[in-house]
Amino acid sequence: MPKGEFEAIPQAVLADTALIDLINEVQLYHTGARVSAAALSNAKANVEPGPIRRCDMSRIYRHQNTLYALEMTGAQLKKYLEWSVGFYKTYKEGDLSPSFDPEVPLYNYDMFEGVNYTIDVSKEPGARIQELSWSDGTPVLDDQTFVIAVNSYRATSNLLTPGTIYEEGNLPKLLESDVHGNVGDIRAREPYRPLASIHKSSAIIHSSSSSATSISLNWAIAAMLPANAAAPQ
Hints:
Order of helices and strands: HEHEHEEEEHEHEH
Helix content: 10-25%
Structural class: alpha/beta
Number of strands: 8
Distance between the termini: 27 Å
Largest sheet: 5 strands, mixed
Strand content: 15-25%
CATH topology: 5'-nucleotidase,  domain 2
Number of helices: 6
Radius of gyration: 18 Å
CATH superfamily: 5'-Nucleotidase, C-terminal domain
């Protein structure tokens, strides 16, 4: 995890990072999904450059979740994204750094692989996702269907249960639950433990995938500039 732009704020909640990419890439690998979503469960989690160890996996993914594959539409994805970025408070004049809704825990802020998008925190919740596109730059259409990989907590608590994100009758479709859940001796963590063998000859480097997640921070830059200076466009 690279050093944060703002002290005491995890960089993963400000921009795309290799750590979240790692979790999402494993979920994509095991499901064959086009999109994956994952949250940072521990704000201090990190893996240093070098060989990946099993203890590293426990540090960055410590919850007893399994892996689900769902089918959803582009419109449902946009709604999911908007729900997730409710994690941020709306910018108010004079704010010098991003701030977060204290009622939304870190583990309810999902970050996505397989799509590009920008979060504009100057907008009110429900209107913050900008420029949503696939990794190749083509727009995500409302009526497109695709497979998304998520953990069991997100699937059962929010995506397949009406109320928090979707209304009854407009839920994503469950395709498979507990993907690879019968492998190994610790069933609940198996979807994530294979990371050690998949990448056992690899090393963590400080780079991110091609999927871009960025937060519009021109307001923060402007707030720190002299009154006669212009924020970058």
